[in-house]
DNA sequence: GACAGTCTGTACCGATCGGTACAATCTCCG
DNA sequence: CGGAGATTGTACCGATCGGTACAGACTGTC
């Protein structure tokens, strides 16, 4: 009863790491079993929908984490400087300063994009909306706000790609540090 | 004889599209056979090393294209403005204005990264070197040049990710358009 | 027209894929 | 203790994976 919920919340982060490391198609049931210590019996007991349900729930939890820790604070702030700083700090923490990869980005680039197109689209769209509206609220015109918001999102994704490609997490750290002045600049 | 070479040069772009669309692990031999119109017999005749050799040669050809069309021009120029403009134009053409994805980036994010770590690293490293040295040659200090160069590379990768995630290639176009002023700005 | 080398289709291999079935076990509550 | 439901391990399924073997069909040369 209570334990089922506990198990599931402990399970999803483990699943997330498997999907992050191997992608959707690369995350085989034996890898998942190995990472979680669970056999197929248990896995299909918790996730009758199989791999697809596992990935969908993982994406759901990621979405929820960003909603609470990043999107909502952006929406409820009227002072862009500290809000942007908080976002950058949260992003740096979530991606472990460039050591971790973005599962949503991994899926967006892979063949499983179509299967999760709605979740992938929603994740970035809501982030973009929250951020660009914050910037617009602070005075910059809507077009510039949208452009800067997209710049921030794509910088984060690109920095994760490049950091992993060059095996140099510092790239991610520097890219994040560069972001606040670009987002908060006076000139449009 | 002459035909073998011709066949191979026609084959590699087809293989590249399969790897782009499905990733390394997702590119099954039956998909490859379907895309090329070749059976396993022919495929293994041309690539005795199997999938790994196919992907390695595809990466090699991509590397060669960038070397000729992007890296070399950057190295041989002393005027950053037209050189950067030419790079942006070439990148826009190569990635079909955001409709195409970067295979090197796809592999960097996937599980096959380790298998092709050398090629992936070399591709971005040589691009970064060529671009940052051009900027340094034009007067900006080495640290700024390196930072701006990384910014350009990661912007391109991130724009491809975001464009695909949101199914909006215009994101890529706008990100590219934003790049020259950032690379060529006076202030460091 | 015969030979050599290139190319191709097909049958086949063991391994592993995602998924199912189900009996055995565990856990909790009365 | 006993029974209900949650949980698990194992055997099994058909399909497909990457790869191999090889006989036959092309292709060009003498």
Beta percentage of chain A is: under 5%
Q: What structural class should be given to the helix and strand makeup of chain A?
A: mainly alpha
**What is the makeup of the main sheet of chain A?**
none
Oligomer: homodimer
Distance between the termini of chain A: 55 Å
What can you see in these coordinates?
- 2 copies of one chain form a homodimer.
- With 188 residues, chain A is mostly helical.
- Chain A has a domain at 56-184: Tetracycline Repressor, domain 2.
- Helix content of chain A is 79%, strand content 0%.
- Chain A is built from 9 helices and no strands.
- The first copy, chain A, has helices at residues 2-26, 29-36, 40-46, 50-75, 80-94, 103-109, 117-137, 142-165, 170-184.
- The radius of gyration of chain A is 18 Å and the shape is elongated.
- The first copy, chain A, starts with a helix and ends with a helix.
- The mean pLDDT of chain A is 95.
- The interface between A and B is large, with 42 and 42 residues.
- Chain A binds a DNA duplex (30 and 30 nucleotides) through residues 1, 3-4, 7, 28-30, 38-42, 44-46, 50-51.
Topology, pairings included?
2 copies of one chain form a homodimer.
Chain A: H1 2-26, H2 29-36, H3 40-46, H4 50-75, H5 80-94, H6 103-109, H7 117-137, H8 142-165, H9 170-184
The first copy, chain A, binds a DNA duplex (30 and 30 nucleotides) through residues 1, 3-4, 7, 28-30, 38-42, 44-46, 50-51.
């Amino acid at each position: 009863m209570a334990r089922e919920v506990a198990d599931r919340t402990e399970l999803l982060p483990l699943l997330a790491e498997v999907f992050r490391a191997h992608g959707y198609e690369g995350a085989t049931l034996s890898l998942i079993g190995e990472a979680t210590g669970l056999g197929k019996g248990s896995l299909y007991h918790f996730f009758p929908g199989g791999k697809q349900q596992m990935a969908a729930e993982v994406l759901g939890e990621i979405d929820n984490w960003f909603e609470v820790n990043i999107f909502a604070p952006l929406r409820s702030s009227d002072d862009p400087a500290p809000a942007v700083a908080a976002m950058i700090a949260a992003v740096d923490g979530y991606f472990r300063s460039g050591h971790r990869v973005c599962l949503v980005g991994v899926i967006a680039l892979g063949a499983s994009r179509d299967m999760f197109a709605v979740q992938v689209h929603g994740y970035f769209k809501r982030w973009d909306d929250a951020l660009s509206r914050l910037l617009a609220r602070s005075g910059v015109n809507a077009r510039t706000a949208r452009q800067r918001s997209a710049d921030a999102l794509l910088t984060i994704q690109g920095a994760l790609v490049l950091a992993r490609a060059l095996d140099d997490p510092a790239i991610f750290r520097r890219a994040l540090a560069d972001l606040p002045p670009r987002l908060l600049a006076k000139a449009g």
